[in-house]
Amino acid sequence: MVQDRITEHLEALVAMRTTGDRPEELHQAVEYVAETLQGLQIHKYEKDGKPSIVVTFQETQIPKVIFVGHLDVVPADDAQFQPRIEGTKLYGRGALDMKGPDAVLLTLFEHLRDQGSQPPIGLMLTTDEESGGEAGVGYLLREAHWRTEFAVIPDGGIGFTLITDGKGVLHLKFHAKGVPTHGSTPWRGVNPIDQLLELYHHLKARVPQEPCGDPEHWHRTVNLGKLCGGDAPNRVPEEAEMFLDFRFPAPYTPEEIWAEVREVLARYPGITVEELARGEPVHTDLDHPYLQLFRQAAEEVLARPVKLGKEHGATDGRFFAELGIPVIVIYPIGDDIHGKNEWVDLPSLKTLYRIFEGFVQRLES
Ligand SMILES: [Zn+2]
What we know:
It is a single chain. This protein has helices at 2-15, 23-36, 95-115, 134-142, 192-204, 254-265, 289-302, 317-322, 346-364, and strands at 41-47, 50-56, 65-70, 84-86, 89-91, 121-126, 150-153, 162-166, 168-177, 181-182, 221-229, 235-236, 239-248, 271-279, 282-283, 308-311, 327-329, 334-335, 343-345. The chain is an alpha+beta fold and 365 residues long. Strands 1-2-6-3-7-17 form a 6-stranded mixed sheet, sandwiched between helices. The protein has a 4-stranded antiparallel sheet with strand order 4-5-19-18. It has a 4-stranded antiparallel sheet with strand order 11-13-9-14. A hairpin with a 7-residue loop joins strand 18 (334-335) and strand 19 (343-345). Helix 1 packs across helix 3 (95-115) and helix 1 packs across helix 9 (346-364). The protein is elongated and about 80 Å long. It starts with a helix and ends with a helix. Bound molecules: zinc ion. Zinc ion binds at residues 208, 210, 212, 214, 217, 219. Residues 208, 210, 212, 214, 217, 219 line the site of zinc ion (ZN).
């Protein structure tokens, strides 16, 4: 029964083309959730055209635990919006990331409602995770003032690895003004691309160089993702731009990275900088009582010790981390997220359901 219901929700959700550029489908997905969970406390929101929904059993804006998911997906071919089951696998866009886990949560909340339970938990589903999360979880925490003691985000890791740490992120755009001149007389000008590259190498020298010897690479990194400027080989350009992506584990903060950048930047008066995005690193203490309850539930269902892990990419967890709220991230079995053959293992969704169910039971007892 549980398995069938999860599959039913998953097929319905995959068939909705919920890419960021389709507001109608985003609303359709949120309405689907509201209808499925009618009878519970339903709170709907919209920010910058992105709808979201928070569902609780009790009248509160501070449930003890919030389960967090997103209903939006990245673009895909038409065929990927027609869910296809082969053996135990369901193929389709969002099967793993993360309509599979969404379907698990919908089924769980439905079941608890039908039982007449009133657990101290909430479900937060947003529609802009793939485009940054600012109008989704960012908005719900910062402006709609939702709070919790603990967030569970089934949107990362692999095959039930329990993720307790995530790196923070800072995206900066640098702009350099040069003094243009002919390429045959570069000493007469100032080359802004040279300036940016020099700055980049100074910043890069501050992070560990590869090979670093740490198999987890749990250290700071910086990536030069975009560099533009100039128009011809025989001209010193007038201006140039450089985009850097800094990643860092706790206890580093975005402010500390900024402070380093400013210090190095002091040597380059022609360069200005602008922040494009930031996120706090996630670090959840292994001794946290809810983490322990979750681990017990997972180990009982999996009948093996839970593997702990760290995640390099940012999740919506960063918005909770910003408020000091502990976060864990876990995934069922599947693969090829954002790829052409994204799939999820259907029995593993039931396993995820059992883990969540066991966790909620433990929270209540
Ligand atoms: Zn490394």
